[in-house]
Amino acid sequence: MISLPLFTALALMTAVAALAVLWPLSRARTLKATREADLAVYRDQLAEIARDAKSGRLPAAEAEAARIEVARRMLAADAAADAASADPAVAGRRRRAAAIFALLFVPVCAAALYAVMGSPSLPGAPLAERMAAAPDRSDVAILVRRVEEHLQKNPNDGQGYEILAPIYLRLGRPEDSARAYGEAIRILGPSAERLSARGDALVVAADGLVTADAAKAFAAALALNPNEPRAAYFLGLAAEQDGRAQDAARIWGDLLARTPASALYRPMVAEALARVGGTVPPAAPSPATPGPNAADVNAAAQMSPQDRNAMVRGMVERLAARLDQEPNDIDGWERLIRAYGVLGDKDKADAALKTARAAFKDDPAALARLDAAEKALPTGGKG
Fold first, then answer.
1. Neighbours of 220 (CB within 10 A)
2. How far apart are CA 291 and CA 102, in angstroms?
3. CA angle 244, 246, 249 (to 5 degrees)
4. What pLDDT score does 198 carry?
5. Rounded to whole angstroms, how far apart are CA atoms 217 and 212?
6. Average of per-residue pLDDT across 174-200
7. How far, in Å, CA of 323 to CA of 289, rounded?
8. Residues with Cβ < 8 Å from 42, sequence gap 6 or more?
């Protein structure tokens, strides 16, 4: 059932739409009155020209030219008035037909289309009820709305803004994403990743243009981490958009020189470099997977269980951070998944499996290795 306020709002919207169609039909008489006023003005101008010519304030040649111009305008106004008043009966029938169409045909057609294509029997889903219902992971809008309400009550929850910002970007709300990243930076402090992400959102909001604010964010990101690839790429793009092709080639060339071949973004940067006439340098060697040496093992044996656990977790976190930048390392993913299993971090193991499968979605051999890694988990990959 449609509530009375909603029904009233829909009725008003229909009336406004009909009025928008009917309004132009009333303009014929208005135009005619306007043209009558124009003719009166032209007649006054002719009289003034005659007075000025007679008194000698206006030379005869200029007076004649002015009279000709005013006469031309009067003829044009008369012609327009004649056209507007031609066959008033026909014009009246057309206006009535248009009014009937606007008042009857449009609402009837809209109702018929809704009956055929719509869902009149579908129960209503008021926002308040959906907000009070149990969370549904498929309803992203409701989840976003709940986080927004949480942030309204807890404006200094930086983690909340950091979670919400990339979701805004995926939902096509780059301005909101940039604002959320800005709040996260204000509360949690700047980091190269946050600054780059904010700059990225600003670029999307500007339809691909690297604005001054975005360039400032990318420069700040590089100041914190000179190897931040996204900031370097967009600063190169800013140079290209400013017409500084040599600067763009230098920035992208430097970025590629320190980028391993396995980096997913390398082809995109190489294509950009070729676009400005640069030469793609050889790929940087992939960094070795960090692991303990004999001294580390001996030192670990002397540690307390708490210190040893902290050391292991630090190694796993470094491996995870490297795989974020270089997701094409299947050996690294296997080690990470196995490590999470040993540490009992099932959620992280599941997340790593999901990310790795996305990275190797077109590689059946790698996917088979991931399946084997999942089965080797202490839980057998099952909850």
1. 18
2. 76
3. 110
4. 96
5. 9
6. 94
7. 10
8. 70, 73, 74, 77
